[in-house]
Amino acid sequence: MTENAASAGRWRVVTTMLRLAWQADRAAAVLAFVLAGLQALTLASFGLWLKLVVDGIQTGNPLTVVAGAAGGVISIAINVSFAYGGQRAQSRLRDHTRYMMNAQILNLVGAAPTLELHESPQHLNELSAFQREGHQLSQVLPRMVELCTVTVQIITTAVLMVLVNPLLLALPLFAVPSLLVSFKTSRIMRDSGRRAATPARLAEHLVEVTAAPGGAKEVRLFRLQAELLSRFHQAHYQIRRLNGQAQLHVAALSLAGRLVFIAAYVASIALVVRLVADGEASIGEAALIAVLAGQVLGLVSGSSEVLQLTIRSLVAADRFVSLQDLFGRAAQQGHSTRPVPLRLRRGITLSDVSYQYDNTAHPALEKIHLDLPAGSTVAIVGENGAGKSTLVKLLAGLYSPTHGTITIDEEDLASVDLAQWQDRISAAFQDHARFELLVRETIALGDVQLLSGDADPDARVLEALDRAAATDVLSALPHGLGTQLGSGWPAGVDLSGGQWQKLAIARAMMCPAPALLLLDEPSAALDPETEHRLFEAWTQVAQELRERVGSITVLVSHRFSTVRMADRIVVLRNGTIAEQGSHEELVRKNGLYAELFNLQAAAYR
Ligand SMILES: Nc1ncnc2c1ncn2[C@@H]1O[C@H](COP(=O)(O)OP(=O)(O)OP(=O)(O)O)[C@@H](O)[C@H]1O
Question: Which SUPFAM superfamilies does this one have (predicted)?
Fold first, then answer.
């Protein structure tokens, strides 16, 4: 899956951000833009008040001088008040929209039923850039407001200049090359940011892995500090080199744009001096033009800066909108009206199923034909990298086969409602999540409705712990089910790897009647005896579920003492099925399974 997080189009980005501002805080959005416009008007009026004062002095009219001075003071006071109110509104708007954007991305990222986007390096780059550029993104609306101020200021200045002499209108026009350059330079910076995304992620990863408790141990024991630091420096060197080239290019272009405007500025001042000398303009008008030309000069330097920053923040916003589109489409994937059968009658069938990860040379699974009958317990065994976890994820609908079909009671999984199918699945993985919540909550997440309901979840949670053969974990906890997990929290406790794993298995056992229970090496950190007890306990529950809902249990394990209890064992080798059958059948066959089984049995003797 190589779908591109392509540009969403500048106009769409702007309208999306404005809509977001409107949804986040209407009052602040309106105030921010209105006050910005009014602030620009009062700023432009300074020149007019100054003209009045100079004209009053020239004509000896004290009333005009006083009126001009009073107008100037009042407009300064209004300008300052508008600026203060505008800033308050902008900061409120910034906080509210930033919160909304994060919530929307969090929601969409979690809503995609498959894992393909999460595992694509390209989209990981985009996601991490989105998180890294939080600051830019929060500046989008303030920048747009600033741009609105600049636009109003340019228009008012242009109007006032035309009133003195239409030729002066050329001055703001000479600002255009400078502004056009801003578009080009922003594109250069965006492209360099994209090129630097991979080294930037690598640098972040190196910091994370060094700081994480697991990484910290190995960094010390393997003396990795110097090696990781050198890789960190290399990544930063790459980022600096890419950014440095881009910045040099940008500086050259910006200077060229400014020089064009400065030449026009000098020419317009010469024109006004000439007009006054010829008696075609008053000294007051000359003062007005001097103020306005100064403002235009400030505007050009400021506005190309504002424009560049606006475009840079719009690039971050573009990323937000593209991610929203991408994950939004992924969330729609698998939405279908075809329901999942309430009770499995026939089971799950894989016909000619292959799966190949992006950017890999060989398929992880190839031409798999497999029947998982309703009510059966199926163990999957095979060496590392044989394709066991990939098969489990395909069954869960976390990946879609690149070839072939998976049917559930003869309904193609591609055409049933994927979210509904995933609601009927429960699972525990070796790389399970460690939710640092109360013990009760960590387990009850396996049936999340229970947490939002009024019923006391404890009875169900204890039952799940029992099914997972994990009640012993409770005795080690100071407040039982009410213990906070994670030593980073007040009164929080940390658990051993095996204890965390037992809680993950208990979470999987919360689902009262799953159509499919996936246990992908969830007990690798447990001792073989505990794993054996766990599977025995589950087999008894599965017996009852077999009758009621036709539940299928799929177990991945390297422990043959557990595997042999399954009704059917599937042996994978290099992504294909090497053999399958019951333990007795496979031992009699004396093939790969028998070889692996005997090897392990000999090791225990
Ligand atoms: N996200 C991924 N991207 C690319 N290749 C992957 C990815 N996950 C797994 N693979 C590759 O697919 C193949 C099968 O991997 P899989 O995790 O399914 O094996 P496994 O039998 O579960 O291995 P193990 O016993 O080590 O857990 C391996 O060659 C692996 O390198």
Answer: ABC transporter transmembrane region, P-loop containing nucleoside triphosphate hydrolases
